[in-house]
Specification:
This protein has about 240 residues and is of the alpha/beta class. The chain has 6 helices and 13 strands. It has helices at about 1-35, 35-40, 90-95, 105-110, 195-205, 225-235; strands at about 45, 55, 60-65, 75-80, 100-105, 115-120, 125-130, 130-135, 155-160, 160-165, 185, 210-215, 240. The strands form 2 sheets. The protein has a 7-stranded mixed β-sheet. Strands 1-2-3-4-5-6 form a 6-stranded mixed β-sheet. The longest helix has about 30 residues, at about 1-35. The mean pLDDT is about 90. It binds zinc ion.
């Protein structure tokens, strides 16, 4: 009898041991393979060259569509940062817009768009189709391409729990300290925007989990600018130079 009791005890101990081991292995597996929110969002972001991005979330969101290929996915939402032709490009918008597409743009650009257009100004936060969209300042310091007095913006979008900052055309500006972003898309091509070195300073102000250099390789700037930015940040930031799609 005692022997049977002992055996049963051993049996249950072994069984519970196996259960605990499986549980621990399962937790390790989940921790290793589950993506955090910024990595999950990064996989949905496509760089289309220059400052143009498409985010394939529940809705298809384009930012500053430019040099869009024929047959590109249609847009549910198009966000425009400012009126320069490499950011507000009617010939590209026509390729992706449908009658249902919603546009978000600063007032001076909203006037040039037709359809479902919502003007947005710096500091304003709106909700469109469940996405929080915040317009933030974007301007040059010491050069006049993008004056502070203009209504140019950058955007912080909250998509599926991740905060994506598209800086627009800007220099390093003090307002960047206030930006809370998981992923920062920062111009680094110089001349009209930040250089690689300046974009590295901007990343340090913003402190995002993932940094993506943009505004290079098309009109201005080269991969070298993106690499300069990456080298300057490599010890402490996750800088990802994206391939153009
Ligand atoms: Zn511009």
């Amino acid at each position: 009898m005692r022997n049977l009791f002992f055996r049963r005890n051993v049996f249950f101990s072994v069984l519970s041991g196996i259960f605990v081991l499986c549980l621990m292995a399962g937790l390790c597996f989940a921790k290793t393979f589950a993506l955090n929110k910024e990595d999950a969002m990064f996989k949905k972001i496509h760089w289309l060259g220059h400052a143009a991005f498409r985010i394939d979330a529940e809705k298809v969101i384009y930012l500053d569509p430019f040099k869009i290929k024929d047959g590109a996915k249609k847009a549910d939402l198009i966000l425009i940062t400012h009126g320069h032709s490499d950011h507000l490009s009617p010939e590209d918008i026509v390729k992706i817009a449908t009658g249902q597409t919603k546009f978000i743009a600063p007032p001076s650009c909203a006037k040039k768009l037709s359809g479902n257009v919502t003007p947005i100004t710096r500091g304003q936060k709106i909700n469109v189709d469940g996405f929080e969209i915040q317009a933030v300042p974007a301007y040059n310091i010491g050069k006049n391409f993008h004056p502070e007095s203009s209504d140019n913006v950058g955007y912080v979008l909250t998509v599926e729990g991740a905060r994506v900052y598209h800086a627009g055309d800007t220099d390093v500006i003090p307002e960047m300290k206030e930006i809370d972003a998981d992923i920062a898309l920062l111009p680094c091509g110089g001349t009209y925007t930040m250089t690689g070195g300046e974009a590295a300073q901007a990343a340090k102000l913003i402190n995002p989990k993932i940094v993506v250099p943009m505004h290079w390789g098309s009109i201005i700037g080269s991969k070298k600018d993106a690499e300069t930015m990456k080298d300057l940040l490599s010890s402490s930031y996750d800088v990802r130079i994206m391939g153009r799609e």
